[in-house]
Amino acid sequence: MSGKIATKLSELGLNLPDAPAPAANYVPWVVIGDLVFVSGQISQDTSGPLRGKLGAEVSLDEGVEAARACALSLLAQVKAACDGDLDRLVRVVKLTGFVNSTPDFTDQPKVVNGASDLLVEILGDAGRHTRSAVSAASLPLGVQVEIEGIFQIG
User: Fold this and answer.
1) DSSP 100-112
2) What domain of life does the UniProt record list for this protein's source (predicted)?
3) What is the CATH number of the domain that holds 26?
4) Taking the model in full, what pTM does it have?
5) Contact 47/69 with Cβ under 8 angstroms?
6) What phi, psi does 102 have (nearest 5°)?
7) pLDDT digits 0-9 by tens, 62-90
């Protein structure tokens, strides 16, 4: 992996995972013009899905880390959509974050900040984006977080 974004990831001690394969009947990304629409990426790491419910057995800090994992998977999908050249990424346009949480949990925005903050840390102003952060009663595989995104490429 080479390039500006790869260098920044390396400086931060981060590695992009392989772009996760779809788990059902959908494609991981679609390019239309200069936009890449990336399907929801679930919270997972090298050991597998990061499961649990915020406001119950999962702490806010764990949820933030789960959202960071989603952000790395989103970037991996953008890289795949750009034929391996992540430096074609111009900016993050929008994220929609879903947080598996109890009815009384209200810190969904703080959880999804894990992804937002990481993208800004990696990309600078190009990582700033519009966003929604909502609660979900349940998510696929019981994961903590799922995030989808729209990205501009050049």
Assistant:
1) EB-TT---HHHHH
2) Bacteria
3) 3.30.1330.40
4) 0.96
5) no
6) -70, 160
7) 999 999 999 999 999 999 999 999 999 99
Judge whether 102 and 53 are in contact, CB under 8 Å: yes
Helix (H), strand (E) at residue 7: helix 4-11
Structural domain harbouring 75: 4-153
- Strand 29-32 to strand 35-42: parallel, antiparallel, or no bridges (unpaired)? antiparallel
Number of domains in the chain: 1
Q: Phi first, then psi: what are they for 147, rounded to 5°? A: -135, 135
Identity of the residue numbered 107: D
CA 86/CA 51 separation, integer angstroms: 29
Residues pairing with 132 in the sheet: 96
User: Per-residue DSSP letters for 129-154?
Assistant: -EEEEEEES--GGGBSEEEEEEEEE-
Distance CA 68, CA 57 (A): 19
Question: Per residue in 26-57, pLDDT tens?
Answer: 999 999 999 999 999 999 999 999 999 999 99
Look-up: residue for tokens 């009947």?
25
Are 81 and 29 within 8 A, CB to CB? yes
CA distance 44 to 73: 9
